[in-house]
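Subject: for your reference before the review

Hello V.,

The reviewers asked for a structural picture of the protein, and I figured it would be easier to keep everything in one thread rather than splitting it across files. Below is the amino acid sequence we used in the manuscript, unchanged from the supplementary table.
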Amino acid sequence: MKRAVIAALASLAFSQAAVASANLDCSAQDKLVAKLEIEALTSRDGKHLASFKGVLEIEPGKAIELSPADVKSHHTEKNISFVIAKHTAQGPLEIRIFAKPVGDGDLDYEGNYVVTAGKLKKTGKIACQAG
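And here is what came back from the structure prediction:
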């Protein structure tokens, strides 16, 4: 009986976590970097990051993979913001993303990114979709 209660509570907790999460996809909208894409699963309140992966290509064909350990801060409640930092073979890398909702709904966001890699600094436009 005790196991059944624990299993029921665990099932309820997992179903609540699934309902209380949001998928987020962002990508650079210009050619100032060859590629900048992130995918994240966050809590609806924007405080918890369940999963994260991303890729940055400053130059075509030279991908830098991004992982959850690289996310230094994030917020996804009303506006979207990420600070991503990683040490690479070429030196320190930092990515800052900030986007605000656009249109009538709260599913589309537009904003800016800043990529700093050593002395190189690139800024551009980013678009995100939440669901």
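For the response letter, the relevant points are probably these. The domain at 21-130 is CATH 2.40.128 (Lipocalin). The beta strands are 21-28, 35-43, 49-57, 63-66, 71-75, 80-88, 91-101, 108-117, 120-130.

Happy to draft the paragraph if you're swamped.

O.
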